[in-house]
Here is the input.
Amino acid sequence: MRCGNPAAPYARCKSCREYANELAKQLRIKRLADGVCGKCGAKVFGRKTCENCLLPARRSHKTVLARRIEAGLCTQCGQLPPMSVVSNATPYRQLCQTCYLKRKASSGLGSEKHWETLLAILEKQDWKCRYTGEHLILGINASVDHIQPRARFPKSNDDPTNIEWTTLVVNQMKRDLTPEEFLSLVIQIRNHCAS
Here is the structure.
């Protein structure tokens, strides 16, 4: 209608829709720069969207999650999981193995594209902890460990060759120790307790 092209009543042609979308985008950018909600212009504190504008999306997300959980689907991708992983940290979430590994790759290696590498390492270790030989179960006792600790060797943080799978307990005990330092500590503890 803005351009004069004939259109059905109350409808816009493609160029008018694109023009309106561009105006809306510019308005959102201006509102965000002014420190207000990008959707409605209400005052927000440290956010891009106010609570009133977030509410419908949150309700919709909860509904989708509930439906997926009820159907036994992965809450992340909605696919039927070949192997379900219910995380201790998020017991209401059921993830397929792929989505679980993508999350671990994202947090441990900075990108979910390394999920296949994490799976390959886990299979190479025969699903067993590198230190105890205990069987690893994703979401229960399995943990991604950086061989050379992140805090002391920041250059190797995102290096997939610096990853091994351990039990969560071992990873928590190892903390910022190298494998040699950790094993030395374990031997020292064993010797002290044996005497």
In short: Helices lie at 14-33, 51-71, 97-109, 115-124, 168-174, 179-194. The first strand starts at residue 84 and ends at 86. The mean pLDDT is 85. The beta strands are 84-86, 94-96, 142-146, 163-167.
